[in-house]
Amino acid sequence: MLIDAHAHLDHYDEPREALASIERRRILTLANSMDPASYVRNLALAEGCPFVLPSFGIHPRRARQHAGHLADFGHLIERSPMLGELGLDFHWVRDKDSYPHQIRVFEFLVCAAAEQDKIVNLHTKGAERRILDTLRAHGAARAIIHWYSGPMDVLAEMISEGYLFTVGVEVLYSEKIQAVARAVPPRQLLSETDNPGGHRWLVGEEAPPDVIAEVVAALARIKGLPPEKMEALIQANFLRLAGDDPGLGGVRALLEKETATKRPR
């Protein structure tokens, strides 16, 4: 089964069409949220679809609006099987007055994730070292690093911590991202689209969910594997990350069923 480990289902112009494509192509899609309202929309869109896993998060661009109300989000954090998108952005976000709000929100959510042993799906742009230090300080070991493009020395340290890394549509165009993909060990790789915004940002047009197959094929070429082997590897990596987490039991069962269906008899 293809896995899109970082997408924004509620951002599509026609999310129901995207959802139909996800179901038709059977793409396990981690639907990250930007704020509480985004999470509610993703929950509604995913209702009845086993291929979409919504998660609660507060994106660093939305941190200022929510930093003073973090205590109100306990029930959303408890409900969410994993947390994302969250993190820090000291690159694209030029308003430095927002940085203390970003840090407050990020540390609150990382602390909650560590206490509840939940996976975090992380935005790290321009703050890679600060994020690594925070994860280590809180003992948050179950991390997905989304679209890493930072310093290679920090990447090496994150790899040594055992974090998983999503590589997305930029791998089709960027030597920097291809270098990141080469550096990440195969057992720590995941695939993503960051749809619909990722492809639109790169080439000016929205791509359908099944562009994830092109990402997997590119990763396969970089690692010298057939595409079907890379697809199976990514699935195994996510299953290992999920472990016996009770909140991810449905997803684990779905992936294990897919593996059993494709296993030679």
Helix content: 40-55%
Q: SSE order in H/E notation?
A: EHEHEHHEHEHEHEHEHHHH
Instruction: Estimate the strand proportion.
Output: 5-15%
Strand order of the largest sheet: 4-5-6-7-8
Number of strands: 8
* Integer average pLDDT: 96
- Structural domain tally: 1
CATH architecture: Alpha-Beta Barrel
Distance between the termini: 18 Å
Q: In angstroms, what is the radius of gyration?
A: 17 Å
| Number of alpha- plus pi-helical segments | 12
What's the multimeric state?
single chain
Task: Explain how this protein is built.
The chain is an alpha/beta fold. It has a single domain (2-262), classed as Metal-dependent hydrolases (TIM Barrel, Alpha-Beta Barrel). It is 49% helix and 13% strand. The protein has 12 helices and 8 strands. Strands 4-5-6-7-8 form a 5-stranded parallel β-sheet. Helix 1 links the parallel strand 1 and strand 2. The model has no long low-confidence stretch (mean pLDDT 96).
List keywords for this structure.
alpha/beta, TIM Barrel, 5-stranded parallel sheet, 265 residues
Topology record:
Layout lengths: L1 E6 L7 H11 L1 E5 L4 H11 L5 E3 L8 H4 L7 H6 L3 E5 L11 H18 L3 E4 L4 H11 L4 E4 L5 H10 L2 E4 L7 H9 L5 E3 L5 H7 L8 H12 L3 H16 L6 H14 L3
Parallel strand pairs: 1-2, 2-3, 4-5, 5-6, 6-7, 7-8
